[in-house]
Design brief:
By secondary structure, the chain is an alpha+beta fold. The protein folds into two domains: about 70 residues; about 180 residues, Glutaredoxin. About 60% of the residues lie in helices and about 10% in strands.
């Protein structure tokens, strides 16, 4: 409604108020009835507008609550392993795991990682430091979780697995992270990985054969499937004695989690 029309209608409403103050029993004039009808229509329009505004805010509030609850449920889902009875078995150390540390250690740290992940490279020194600090109490397990956006994650995982078959998994692990900036933009990654294999003293032909084997490919896929069962959604992700650890503060968070696990294991 234009401002002029609104003012005119309000004036008419005022007139109608005056008209209704006449003596009781007198019949309203045609003009007075018209003004009263307009007044009633105007009041109903205002009331309807208020109701619609309240309804809009109610809907917006419900949508906001639903979004907040949805985000919370998603966070809870991602940070809670599936309760299908398989998670405890997955978080046990397997015979084909790559393990560093004392086999009788009280604390087991399992890392799901991706060699192309910059954050994983930053944790290399942190894990080495923890391994030195808790030599007899901590063992570290490395498992693969190649992220789909990383085009060289599977190739480098295969290289580490192939190196492991010649007893040099951890040497290749360290080399890949230490030289990540050098190979991450490499066009022919396989040739670069063969160079790394020779650098750490691997037999080249066996390395290439193992690198291309179906067995290694299946092993990486199994790690990935297990990670998805555990609802891993980023790298690195850590589990300490079967419990997922939030490690936003790096060394401090992991060290506290190790200390807590030591206390509960005693």
């Amino acid at each position: 409604m234009e401002n002029g029309e609104m003012e005119s209608e309000l004036q008419e409403n005022n007139v109608s108020k005056e008209s209704t103050s006449v003596e009781e029993g007198r019949a309203l004039t045609k003009r007075e009835r018209r003004l009263l009808a307009k007044k009633k229509k105007f009041e109903e329009r205002i009331k309807k507008g208020k109701n619609e505004e309240i309804k809009k805010w109610g809907i917006r509030t419900l949508i906001l609550i639903a979004v907040v609850l949805g985000v919370y449920k998603l966070w809870q889902w991602m940070n809670t392993p599936q309760g299908n009875g398989n998670t405890s078995e997955i978080l046990n150390v397997r015979s084909d795991d790559w393990v560093k540390g004392d086999s009788s250690a009280k604390v087991t740290l399992i890392e799901y990682a991706d060699f192309e992940c910059p954050a994983c490279a930053q944790y290399l020194d942190i894990l080495n430091q923890l391994g030195e600090e808790y030599k007899s109490d901590l063992r570290i397990v490395y498992r693969h979780f190649p992220l789909p956006q990383h085009t060289k994650a599977i190739d480098t995982a295969k290289a580490a697995e192939a190196a492991g078959l010649q007893g040099k998994f951890w040497e290749m692990n360290s080399l890949l992270y230490e030289k990540q900036d050098g190979w991450i933009e490499e066009g022919n990654i396989k040739e670069r990985l063969i160079e790394y294999a020779k650098e750490i003293g691997l037999e080249e032909e066996k390395f290439i054969e193992d690198y291309n084997s179906d067995e290694i490919g299946e092993s990486i896929k199994q790690d990935e499937a297990d990670a998805l069962t555990l609802r891993v959604n980023q790298t690195p992700t850590f589990f300490i004695n079967g419990k997922k650890v939030i490690s936003n503060n790096g060394y401090g968070d992991l060290r506290k989690a190790v200390e807590d696990a030591l206390v509960t294991s005693n």
